[in-house]
């Protein structure tokens, strides 16, 4: 895997790595379970997920999972991932999903991460970035709006849950 590092001077995004497993496991809370994973993680499950993410990087698979890192020690504050293929997406669209651990929320880090990862997605050939969030997930919707995403069409998720879509045209974004 070639090392990818994206930074805006405040945060750095780089691929998840095996030594992130403990911070990721202990950083999970009810909100991350509700909005992202659907069930509490296990150490073994987190380690397997990180191995899968590394395999995706190594094989140029459709998933690009980044750790959101803060400070000179690059403390893991959360994750953000891109899925270049996912149910409901059109060709050229990429799904953006993110989550911060509780102690890092409310600092604008997720918005910064979305902006950085959107530039990366555009450089990888994506035409539109899509954030899909349940209507009750007001924090995720606020991040999407702050990052310049426009409301799109609501649509059901794979399990029938209604998801609000937020879309950013990556062909014209000049940030």
UniProtKB/TrEMBL annotation:
Pfam families: Acetyltransf_3. Residues 11-171 form the N-acetyltransferase domain. Gene3D superfamilies: 3.40.630.30. PANTHER family: ACETYLTRANSFERASE, RIBOSOMAL-PROTEIN-SERINE ACETYLTRANSFERASE. This is GNAT family N-acetyltransferase. It comes from Streptomyces spirodelae.
